[in-house]
Structure formats: C-alpha cells, structure tokens
From TrEMBL:
PROSITE patterns membership: R3H (PS51061), ZF_PHD_1 (PS01359), ZF_PHD_2 (PS50016), ZF_RING_2 (PS50089)
GO annotation (BP), single: negative regulation of transcription by RNA polymerase II
GO function terms (MF aspect): DNA-binding transcription factor activity, RNA polymerase II-specific; RNA polymerase II transcription regulatory region sequence-specific DNA binding; transferase activity; zinc ion binding
Source species of the chain: Pteruthius melanotis
Source superkingdom: Eukaryota
Annotated PHD-type domain residues: 11-68
Any Gene Ontology CC annotation: nucleus
Transmembrane feature ranges: 326-345
Family: Belongs to the NFX1 family.
Keyword field contains Transmembrane helix: yes
InterPro entries: NFX1_fam, R3H_dom, R3H_dom_sf, R3H_NF-X1, Zinc_finger_PHD-type_CS, Znf_NFX1, Znf_PHD-finger, Znf_RING
UniProt keyword terms in alphabetical order: DNA-binding, Membrane, Metal-binding, Nucleus, Phosphoprotein, Repeat, Repressor, Transcription, Transcription regulation, Transferase, Transmembrane, Transmembrane helix, Ubl conjugation pathway, Zinc, Zinc-finger
Family annotation (Pfam families): R3H, zf-NF-X1
Protein name, as recorded: Transcriptional repressor NF-X1
Length: 758
C-alpha cells in the first residue's frame, strides 16, 4: 500500500539518481526487495564496476538489497511481468497492466496463485483454507493455506524407533524420533567380560560368539582338550591345537621332516603332549636383534620353545649419525635395543644457520632439516615505537599492526586524519599559518608544522651596530646569533690578522655589517699587535673579557681532543709563558710531598692514612659551598646517594659498585665531580648534551664517608653567623633577598671550561 501511494502521488525516489519516479517513466522492480528504479538508471548501474559481486561471477548487485542478478534488465514490463511497455491509466496503479497478478507466492507451500490486480511489492498471504495433519499424523485440522506453523496434538508419538524393537514415548513432535535410549548388556567373544550399550547402536551387533573383543588372551580349551587358546579375544571358533600330530610335520627348527626322523628310529607321536623329535642340528632361527647389515641367529641345538638370549653385539649410531658405540643386543629383547638406540645422542652442536639466517641452530645431535628459529624477532617496526613479535625471520618486518582510534591532527587542529590511524603515521600537512608562540612580534610567513622548533624569522629590521657607527637592515633571526662582526672602520684598524679573527669568530663582510662592541675592539687590537703594553693598558672589565675569550678558545680545543682530533697549541701559548705560568708550591704542597717521600721510605700503601690526614675532616672549596647554598636539596640528595654507595661497597663482597645519575646541566655535574673527590669516588661523564650524565664508582678500601657532610658544614656556618643588631635590619635583610637561604641575585653564569672530567 505504501508503494502504491508513493508511486501514484509521484513521491517515490530512485535510489540511483535520487530523482522522483514519474508515472510515465519506464521502471524496473527488484523481485527480492521490491524497490523500484528507473530502467535507464538500473542499466547504467548494472554495467558499472561498483555493482559487480565480490566473486566476480555472480553478476551485478541490487543497489538496495545487494542481491546478485545475472541478467541485466532490457525492457519495461508491468509488475507481474505479463505486459511489455504498459500504458498509464488514471484508474489503475502506475506501471501495472490492470489484470490479475497470477504470480506464485514465494517461500510458502501454497498451490494457489495471487488473485489480486497487478501490484508492486510482495503478494499477500493466501486467503484459502486447507486441512493439515499434525506431526505424528493422528489428528487433522483446518488451517490457512501457506501457514508456516506446525500442528502438534497432545497424543504420544508411538512410532517405531531406530532399534526396531521399541516405540517413541514422546508427545507429538516434529522431525525424526530420537534414537532409542534403552541399554542392553553385551558379552565379549571369549565370554569373560561384559558391557552395556545403547539399544540399536552399531555396537549391539553380535555374530553368535559375542559382540566385542576385550583384548585379553582368549584362554578357551582347544579341540585337543589339553591346551588353551593363546590368541587375543577373537570372533569365530578357536584354531586347532598347534601340537597335534596331524598338524606338526617337521622338527622344532623346521629343517628336517618328521618322516625322515621316524626312519632313523624316533618314536612316532600319538597325542599333542608327546615331545617333538629334535634333529640335532643348530637351530638357526633369526632373532629379533641385530641390524639391517647383519642378522643374528640362534646358536643352540634344535629345540622346542623360545630361543636363548643372543650373545652378539651391535653398533648403535646416534640420531645424527656422527658417533657410534658398541652395545649388547639384550638377549633378543629388541625393544630394549631400540630404546637404547633412540636415547643415544652425541654431544656435537649443530652449526647450521636457522631459517632466519641470523642465529645458529646450536642443538645437540640435531636431526632437523628445516632448522626453524623459535626466537622472537624483536626488531623495531617502521613506526619506531613497537617491536616485531613474530618468530625470527628473513627480510623486512611487516608494518606495525597497531592502530589508534583517536583523531590525528596538526598543531593548530585544522587538518585532521580520522581513525583508524595506523601506528607511525605522521601528522597531516596543514596550509594554515603557524600558530605557535614566537620569540618576536613580526608577522609569521611559514605554515603550520609538526616540529617543535619554528624556522628562523626572516623579517627585515633596522639595527645599529654595537659601536653606534652605522644603521643597517638585518634579518630578525641574526639579532640572536652568537657571532660578532666588524664594521669597515674597525676592519682597517685591525689589519689582516686571521688568527685573532678566528679566535673571536669574526666575519668581515663590509661597511654594512654590525660591528664589534667598543669594549671588545681594544682587546682584539692588542692581540693582533702582540703587544703586552697594549694588554696592560686594558681596563679590569676588558681583562676579564679577555680571560673569558681565552677560556672559550681552550674549551673548544678540549672538545676537539675529546672527539679524537689533534690540536696545535703552540700559537695559544709559548714555552716561556708556560714556565712563567707555573704555580709555586705552597706549604700544603710541600707537606704532601714530604709525606709522600716518608710513605715510600716506610713502604706504606697509598690507600692507608698513616698521618691522619683524611680523618682531620674534608675540605670543601668556597665555590662548591656557594653552589650548594643555591640548591641545598640537590646537594643533600647527592651526598645521601654517595654515602649509601660507599657503605654498601665496604660492607658487601663486591670490590666496586656504581651508580648512574640522570642527565643534568653542567653546574650540577661539577658539584657531583667535586663531592666525588671528597668521598674518594671515581666519577666520569658520558654522552653529549643535552643527555650528558655522570656515573660514580665506589671502590672498597678507597672510598670513605667524610666525618662532616657539606650540608652539615653549611648549617654550622649559618648558625655561627652573628645576628643583626636590630630586628628591623633582619626584616630588611629578608625583604631585600640578601640572606644566605633566600633566592640569590641573578648574575652571570659561571662556566668552568677547564673541567677535564666533564
């Protein structure tokens, strides 16, 4: 009814073109879902690649129900299919012929045809009534034709079960009756065992002697009446006694007929218990031991019964065939011989490569031919975050299978990659302007990016040279570069001394370059002329800058040495200057030299403390104390860790113990190095900035804990300071921030460029 109303009022839309289906337009209706489409639209859809079924052989799929059809519709027919190109009649349903439908109802066991006018959609249920019997067939009922429900009565089924002996006791039911659930007792062929089985099952079969084999020795009396059957429980009658005179024709070893022995005077056998005459020859029966190369035989004289144990030996090879050993054949017990052969293995390890090509097999007495690797691959995948969990293999690992179900966006959030997002996917490219915070206020010209650092600002701006000589246009980013340059005036005054220029990283670029500050240029001129007179005329500030520049130069050379490069220092300092720069020995130095000579004369170990020097208390430098006051918690934690390390190595059985600190800045590393000297601990710095860290190692007998820690020394010094004369002075001191515990004033960072350990 809904289809008829929408087609009549022209409100039904074609799913292919999304246009309204007109009354006079040729259409096609799917016989599975009954959707109506334009005939031309369904033709185009059927020829398109998107409509083809997945297997490629089932034809094209309906756009609505995905039901596959082989033939493509070519003509315009009514809904019942009897009339081609039906004409529209105002009094009839659009696209129908106006006659009886006459189609067979699908999916129903109904013999009647549809008796309403040609219509869209499925045919209605059949209105006729028929008589149907119940499932057991005992009662009848009048029901609607095509009714799918089954009829059940309240009577017992009573049909014969599969066993053919009993009847079904269930109430009227659908389908076949269940198998008979009664049990019957069966006996084995030899009659010694019983078991219960379901009635009517295959196990109920019996051949008259029994129904199953119990797998025990039969034990029934043979026809002779003297011997028992030695076969496993079996159907059919037992065989004849194997010792009957009419059955035995040869001697026990089988080499001589009994008729010949009778001619030689042997007594003729009458019953099965009479002994079988012996021929007197060697038995020669093959034993179960031996090998394929050599078969062992019985060496006893012709006899009845089992043969005696074998006295020969056999070669047993290991499973890989590399070694062999001689072993007894266990008296003919071949299964013991096989066990010995299987368990014998050599100690040779397999040197072949495994299937991965990376690891060796390394198995003892290996017999494997494929040498599959059982280790986990463990290599990093293309995402760089996860590792391969597959068994070790050749070639490249598969792509990371992990997937994120969160949206992946650029920094500003404009560009989005919707989930699922494979692991390792880079953020999407964004054409919007970068929205990250910048150091300058100039306009931003670069796009949004995923890197943390923005590219340098390229905005041009005006800037005075540091000597206030000229104004030039420079790039914004060049204002923060750590290089200085000469203006034209200073270049002429300095000359062409390239050594001085290289020490100061000078870049002579002409009249428009920013110039060196006026406080630095006299230093450069003095070094260029190599005149000590000009150096002596420098101010204290300029001399301090000269010392810093020299320290930076030497620190650069030390870095080159650490990287393995050779450094020429003859141009930095002369031999005469080296002699003049040596420090004179003071009283402490002389005392140490004297103690060292006495220790050598008395053969005293350097690690011992004969003169009670170490017990007199540690000496902390003023610079170390000053740094400790700035970060007292850090120093306290470092000393606590060092004390625990020294106590652990002195009390334990190991001669050395190490501890690795996390990466930290240069000032904190210098504090660790100085404290390590006080505790007698070795300290070494590793890695490059910003991941440079310190590793300390305590040695038993050499590392000791000082009597006074640095934190305790600082506490005593704070307590020994005189109190301010007036309360308001103390308050003013706190407010001004000059107290020892208050935050220190911001000053120029002190860099120890001569810390060789760091």
């Amino acid at each position: 009814g809904s289809l008829i109303e929408q087609l009549t009022t022209e409100k039904y839309e074609c799913m292919v073109c999304c246009e309204v289906v007109r009354i006079v337009a040729p259409v096609w209706s799917c016989q599975n879902c009954y959707h109506v489409f334009h005939l031309n639209c369904i033709k185009k859809w059927a020829r398109s690649p998107a409509s083809q079924a997945e297997d490629g052989n089932s034809g094209w799929r309906c756009p609505a129900c995905q039901n596959a059809s082989v033939q493509v519709p070519k003509t315009y027919t009514c809904f019942c299919g009897k009339v081609h190109n039906p004409e529209w009649n105002r009094n009839e349903i659009p696209h129908s012929c106006g006659e009886l439908c006459g189609k067979k109802r699908q999916g129903l066991d109904c013999p009647h045809l549809c008796n309403i006018l040609c219509h869209p959609g499925p045919c209605p249920s059949c209105p006729a009534f028929v008589t149907k019997t119940c499932e057991c067939g005992q009662t009848s009922h009048s029901v609607r034709c095509g009714q799918s429900t089954k009829i059940h009565c309240s009577n017992v089924c009573g049909n014969t079960l599969n066993c053919g002996k009993h009847s079904c006791t269930q109430v009227c039911h659908a389908g076949k009756c269940s198998p008979c659930q009664l049990t019957v007792q069966q006996v084995c062929y030899c009659g010694s065992n019983f078991k219960e089985v379901l009635c009517g099952s295959k196990e109920e079969f019996s051949d008259g002697f029994g129904s199953f084999s119990c797998q025990n020795i039969c034990g029934k009396k043979l026809n002779c009446g003297r011997h028992n059957c030695k076969q496993v429980c079996h159907p059919q009658p037992c065989q004849l006694c194997p010792r009957l005179p009419q059955v035995v024709y040869r001697c026990p070893c089988g080499q001589t007929p009994l008729s010949k022995l009778l001619e030689l005077g042997c007594v003729e056998r009458k019953i099965c218990t009479d002994p079988i005459p012996s021929c007197g020859k060697t038995c020669g029966k093959p034993l179960s031991c031996g090998s394929y190369e050599f078969i062992h035989t019985c060496e006893s004289l012709c006899h009845e019964g089992d043969c005696r144990p074998c006295s020969h030996t056999s070669n047993i090879y290991c499973r890989c065939g590399f070694k062999k050993k001689v072993s007894l054949t266990f008296g003919g017990l071949f299964f013991l011989f096989l066990i010995a052969a299987i368990t014998f293995m050599c100690d040779k390890r397999c040197n072949k490569k495994r299937s991965c090509g990376r690891h060796k097999c390394n198995e003892i007495c290996c017999v494997d031919t494929e040498h599959k690797c059982s280790l986990v691959c463990g290599r990093k995948l293309n995402c760089g975050l996860h590792r391969c969990e597959e068994p070790c293999h050749r070639g490249s690992c598969q792509t990371c299978w992990q997937t994120s179900f969160d949206e992946l966006t650029c920094y500003c959030g404009e560009s989005v990659i919707y989930p699922p997002v494979p692991c390792g996917t880079q953020p999407p490219e964004c054409k919007k302007t970068c929205t990250r915070p910048h150091d300058c206020d100039h306009p931003v010209y670069h796009s949004c990016h995923s890197e943390e650092k923005c590219p340098p600002c390229t905005y041009l701006t005006q800037k005075w040279c540091m000597g206030k000589h000229e104004v030039t246009m420079v790039v914004c980013q060049s204002l923060t570069l750590p290089y200085v340059e000469l203006c034209s005036t200073q270049t002429e005054q300095l000359g062409t001394d390239e050594f001085v220029k290289s020490r100061f990283r000078l870049l002579t670029v002409g009249d428009c370059s920013p110039c060196v500050p006026c406080c630095l240029f006299p230093i450069m001129r003095a070094l260029a002329s190599k005149s000590w007179g000009l150096i002596c005329k420098l101010s204290p500030t300029q001399l301090h800058l000269l010392q810093q520049i020299a320290a930076i130069s030497i620190a650069t050379k030390l870095t080159d040495l650490q990287l393995g490069d050779s450094v020429e220092i003859s141009r930095l300092i002369t031999k005469k200057e080296m002699k003049q720069a040596r420090l004179q020995c003071d009283e402490e130095c002389l005392a140490l030299q004297r103690n060292r000579r006495l220790a050598e004369a008395l053969e005293i170990d350097d690690n011992s403390d004969p003169f009670n020097i170490r017990s007199s208390g540690p000496k902390y430098s003023d610079l170390l104390k000053e740094d400790a006051r700035k970060d007292i918690k850090f120093v306290s934690d470092i000393e606590k860790e060092m004390r625990m390390l020294v106590e652990a190595v002195n009390k334990g059985k190991h001669t050395k113990k190490s501890h690795c600190y996390p990466p930290m800045n240069r000032d904190h590393r210098r504090i660790i190095h100085e404290l390590a000297q006080v505790y007698g601990i070795e300290s070494v710095s590793y890695d490059n900035e910003p991941k440079r860290n310190v590793v300390i190692t305590a040695v038993k007998g050499k590392s000791v804990c000082p009597s006074n820690t640095l934190t305790s020394v600082l506490d005593k010094e704070m307590q020994s300071r005189p109190a301010p004369p007036f309360p308001h002075c103390k308050q003013a001191d706190k407010s001004s921030g000059n107290s020892g515990l208050s935050k220190p004033l911001k000053e120029e960072p002190v860099i120890d460029y001569f810390d060789v350990q760091d």
